[in-house]
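Sequence, please.
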């Protein structure tokens, strides 16, 4: 990207970029820090951040996949099939990153994987530390894309309200959801109202894109792209409902997060910009693999009542 990348970062650091790009300050400030202290140019530091985020996100998603009772209880041959489905599902969203390259996409994927793991895995870590990590991760994510922690927080709160049998007590689950959502909302209000109050949206930019998405002259061009990107997720939901496949509690939370964010994307973004939803497609890859595996392998090893619906 050359000078264009340098101009983008310098513009955000100077506070002169247009909204909403001006509110996405985390990566420009991190790139500046690496430029000053590690002597890395922007076209070196951003690929390093992207690669690190991608590797960490895949590792966390694999941990989420591997810790599933359905995977643990599967035979070696079935586990190999499930692993192949997982890597296929995790590879598919990569196709939608580069046509609309945004540097915050893969760090956002890492945030979703880390935050969901904090909610669905009950470790020996004190709950206060889990709360602190959730809050810190959500604050940092809100400096990239504040809508993501808000949507995830709403999904976690909804899972507590629906009594999804996650390992944590419902009160703890609700607290984690509240922390994530409040961190995202408060950070966005601070950036827009205090840090950069003069940042304005371009004159040709509409905050509500739903009517554009529903425009009969535009929709036929966008819908094939939209349906192609969401095809694995749509098929997974259809299989789940039609064949009454066993659904683990962690998968229920992931699907809730996708369903909460999907209308937000369609209302505030163009449906052809699949990169907006790419982090959630990555997050859904373990769920997609397990549901497709349960259907293809005709698995009947239902998860335990404590972790399943």
């Amino acid at each position: 990207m050359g000078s264009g990348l340098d101009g983008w970062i310098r513009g955000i650091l100077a506070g002169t970029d247009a909204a909403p790009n001006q509110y996405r300050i985390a990566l420009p400030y991190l790139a500046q820090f690496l430029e000053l202290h590690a002597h890395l140019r922007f076209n070196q530091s951003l690929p390093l951040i992207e690669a690190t985020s991608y590797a960490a996100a895949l590792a966390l998603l694999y941990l989420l996949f591997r810790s599933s009772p359905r995977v643990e209880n599967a035979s070696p041959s079935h586990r190999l099939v499930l692993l192949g489905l997982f890597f296929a599902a995790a590879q598919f969203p990569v196709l939608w990153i580069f046509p609309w390259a945004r540097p915050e996409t893969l760090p956002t994927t890492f945030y979703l994987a880390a935050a969901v793991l904090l909610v669905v895995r009950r470790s020996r870590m004190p709950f206060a530390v889990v709360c602190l990590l959730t809050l810190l991760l959500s604050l940092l994510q809100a400096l990239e894309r504040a809508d993501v922690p808000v949507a995830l927080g709403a999904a976690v709160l909804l899972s507590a309200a629906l009594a999804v049998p996650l390992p944590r007590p419902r009160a703890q689950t609700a607290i984690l959801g509240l922390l994530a959502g409040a961190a995202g909302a408060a950070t966005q209000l601070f950036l827009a109202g205090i840090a950069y109050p003069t940042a304005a949206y371009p004159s040709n930019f509409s905050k509500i894109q739903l009517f554009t998405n529903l425009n009969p002259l535009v929709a036929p061009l966008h819908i094939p792209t939209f349906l192609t990107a969401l095809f694995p997720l749509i098929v997974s939901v259809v299989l789940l409902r039609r064949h009454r496949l066993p659904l683990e509690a962690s998968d229920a939370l992931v699907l809730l997060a996708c369903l909460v964010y999907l209308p937000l994307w369609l209302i505030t973004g163009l449906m052809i910009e699949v990169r907006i939803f790419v982090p959630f497609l990555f997050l859904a890859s373990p769920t997609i693999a397990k549901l497709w595996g349960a259907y293809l392998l005709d698995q009947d090893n239902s998860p335990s009542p404590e972790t399943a619906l």
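The longest helix spans residues 170-195.
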